[in-house]
Structure prediction request, 572 residues.
Amino acid sequence: MLITNTYIAKQFKQLADLLAIEGDNPFKIRAYRNAARTIANLPESLQTRVNRGDDIAQIPTIGSHISAKIREILQTGHLKKLELLKHRFPSHLTDLLSIEGIGPKRAKVLYESLGIDTLDKLRSAARAHRIQTLPGFSATLEAKILKGTVLAKKEGHRFLYADAEPHAQALEHYLKRCPGILDVVIAGSFRRRKDTVGDLDIVTTSHAPGQVMECFVRYPDVREIILHGDTRSTVILHNDLQVDLRCVAPESFGATLHYFTGSKSHNIAIRIFEKAKGFKVNEYGIFQGKKRIAGATEEEFYRAVGLRYIEPELRERRGEIHAAREGTLPVLIEQNDLHGDLHLHTVASDGKATIEQMAEAGRAQGYTYLAITDHSRHLTIVHGLDGDAVLGYIEAIRKVDASLSDLTLLAGMEVDILQDGTLALPDSILKELDIVLVGVHDHFDLTPTQQTRRILKALSNPYVHILAHPTGRLIGQRAPYRLRYKAFFAEVAAMGRILEINAQPTRMDLDDIHIQKAKEAGIRFAISTDSHRADTLEYIRYGIYQARRGWLEKGDVINTLEVEDLKQVLRR
Ligand code: DGT
Ligand code: CA
Ligand code: CA
Prediction:
């Protein structure tokens, strides 16, 4: 059993919190709090020291009473005294203490009079104004508590890019019509097209920043104003999304935009790099002494520091600064480069649209080909197709294809990878298909070695082209399954198999980091939407963003090929 100092410190902090809510002796409580702080900051593990025979009672603020308790934690994994207290109070009650304005006494009142024992209940009660009437509370305190709970929620919560996008666009549209405003750009992780965003950071320019602030905080979707300053304000929208807005003079626009686009590590790297040249770089510009050398545009900003312009998606300190200096930055793929979508479902399995409706949607996207790739039947996919049904399904696709002059339909399937790495359909059927995707839909928890072997075995089938949603993650819901990535990518490259970049907003799988690694290993990709409805083919842009964050160029992606060249690749 490995017991860290952080864990021990947490036990003492919880003990102090619960004793305080109970109303125990303040001196005892303070002693536990001090001990928790000391332990959290110790340079060496207490477990190591006790094993070595050190007398830990000699450590300042510890003493014999607390050192006995530390030994108890090291031996049993917990504190009996704390476990008893925990039985008396609901498990999340101490979370209330993390909110500014709530100490143990108030937590006790909230719990005993309103039954509040979680941050969610606290937030609802504050919103319903049920807190201000309690003894020892006021309307002002209630407002402060509400703010605190909203922020606490934000800390632990990130928004899917696709969920934040409509809010960002609506706000941008509103801001562009504010009096006196010149430029409006949504910067931060949103501009870098990260698959999730913590908050929105907006950079604006104006000669009258006060007016811009006034207009911003009056945006109808604002639920709370956290800060209303002269050149900077922060609000929370009704969906809990926080928005920071800054307003600067036009001559600082490029430098400010660069700073708030980030990422933080990209910024830090640029700064170190520039200090060597004797420049001073800050969010308002690049200065030599007092003289501004650059700042109005990002292009000018990069030029002044001796670098090529770096696309926002690359600003993650993953080699982009070196590449910008050497002139080896990638020419990133664009949505117009794509000629088709290679992963679509229809009513033949669990989709909602017919082949014809999907074809119509593909044409609206400007595509020249689509792969229809319904599921094979398996335990987890009840509506999938089995042996005989597949032949009729291929027939149906070919028939629609023959009726279309401007769009080629490829007959494909997404075939389940079974636990042992074999496929849910026999080769005799697979060989009838134009394109075969395989995917994992169960047994997510194999060991990395087993999972790697399982998937590689499936990919070694000569009829297989593409691995769909390669890591199985669902953002915020399911972690990726564990693989031996290095060996896996090397093998996939050697076999010449394609990895999918699945553009469903909750999947975004592969992710940016793995895309970059897989590319370095020599792998090619397909960017597809995995659409189950006709109106989600436009999700393809999320896949493009992810591909760009993974440094992909047009040549790395097979659905940038014209249909005849694609067929060549699939024929192999
Ligand atoms: P997020 O909101 O968690 O999705 O990620 P970002 O990248 O939008 O981060 P955020 O909102 O905390 O800050 C926006 C940008 O401001 C960030 O990308 C870079 C810049 N920035 C923030 N803090 C620092 C800092 O301490 N140093 C430097 N150099 N830049 C910073
Ligand atoms: Ca942000
Ligand atoms: Ca921010």
The mean pLDDT is 92. The pocket of calcium ion (ligand 2) is lined by residues 188-189, 197-199, 201 (CB under 6 Å). The longest strand covers residues 408-416. Residues 44 and 466 are 49 Å apart (CA to CA).
